[in-house]
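Field reference: "sequence" (input) and "structure" (output). Example, Abc transporter atp binding protein:
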Amino acid sequence: MVITLKNISYITPSGIKLFKNVTLNIDATWKTGLMGPNGVGKSTLLNILIKRITPSSGHVSNNIKAGYFSNSVNSEINSSITVSRYIHNHVHDLSSFNKMWYAFKLKDQLKKQLLKSLSSGELTKLLLSILLSNHYDYYILDEPTVSLDTDGIDTLKDILNTKNGFLIASHDANFLSDITNHTMIVDNQQISLYKTNTLSAANTQRRVTESQDKQIQREKKSIELLKQKSTTLREWDKKSNSDNTKFIKRAKSIEKRIDKLTKEIPNIDKEIKNNQLNSSSTYYKATLTVENFSVGYNEYPLFNPISFSAKPGKIISLHGHNGIGKSSFLNFINHTASNQLNSIGKLHISTNAITLVSKTRTHRQSILKLAKNNYGTDFINGVHKLGIVRDKFNTPIINLSSGEQKKIDLLLSLLDKSALILWDEPSNYIDVRTIQMLIDFVKIQSKTIVVVDHNFDFLKHISDQIINLSAVTNAD
Ligand SMILES: Nc1ncnc2c1ncn2[C@@H]1O[C@H](COP(=O)(O)OP(=O)(O)OP(=O)(O)O)[C@@H](O)[C@H]1O
Ligand SMILES: [Mg+2]
């Protein structure tokens, strides 16, 4: 059984070219990893394969019964449905499902909760257990490890090892190299296919980063090329002594384009001085002090009480397994917790200017509009430094990829008027190169930041202090 793409090209509704004449056969017995920088079209490709998106041209043939997983919100999840009802509605093979539920260490008491009250990791584990216990010939998974703790990733690997074939988009080269035998990399509107045993995780990662660097080079060159073209046209115009105005007309139209590109996006290559962002909050300073503090939804606190003091410019990180109460804690600080959440201990915050970045906010404006109306050139420069290319600048942000939207939200929090930033899983959806840039940005800024993330390596790089949350063991 094979999925075939024949001469596929795809241009998004906002005019961004993602694929050009791609021809590809994917064998359903392959275990394939799909990699590529944010915004190159990985999720779009998966949607083309399952025929949810029709390519602009070319032909897809897929007669395989494939199960599809993605983290994007579905309306049922936000409704008032309980976990047990949801399981009842969607599970085909209960015994196989239960095995996965316990393998993921999910507790039976969760079944009584509303689906929307599950933590992000619990929800992902539930959705993966449902999909992977239902029998399909092939599985197509879009970033399944997002939100999973380390144990969860290991369990997912065990489950995937029992499957015949799958295709998984992820930014985690190590995870993919452990479970796959083929690798596809999206680069410059093309897809390259490798046998995984010929390509180490480090090599795969290097290829992805190189393709990003090349993309930036190509982008830089494009204005140079336009300038050359207009010069040539003007020369031709001089040489042709006739009244023919076609050369000069074309030269003028190209110059207009150059003008637009360079005026709309001024100083794009200007170095952000010492990487310093012109945050408007330089005058505000925030300190967050927590003493013997914990939160919980019943008489028991979720994690053993913690104490710390976060000073301006410092970054405190919290690390702990899915469901331990990290997001609940951040929401408590942000005054957005459910009123069922109780707390013990002391918490003092010296500011009301708080920004929480968790699930992606939806911006209908484009990057250019947001820069013009609110955030200025630092925003444009920052966005570009974080790897978003110019041809995305006019698209409504809501139509960009999950990773691109996440980067924008993180950057906005660094630039807005807040003095205290709370980041709930900032590394989700973000490619490795951008994580590196983010580390650089964060080190030189002056706000107080509390971060929650499952990527321990990332936390080690950005944190002044890491607090490990441990579960309270109670009698029952
Ligand atoms: N209204 C509620 N009633 C009872 N339990 C709840 C409620 N809301 C959330 N919980 C539970 O509280 C626990 C903590 O949730 P929280 O979202 O804070 O976890 P988390 O540490 O952020 O996890 P993750 O790493 O998966 O994001 C979870 O087990 C969750 O199911
Ligand atoms: Mg959470």
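The radius of gyration is 25 Å.
The chain has a mean pLDDT of 91.
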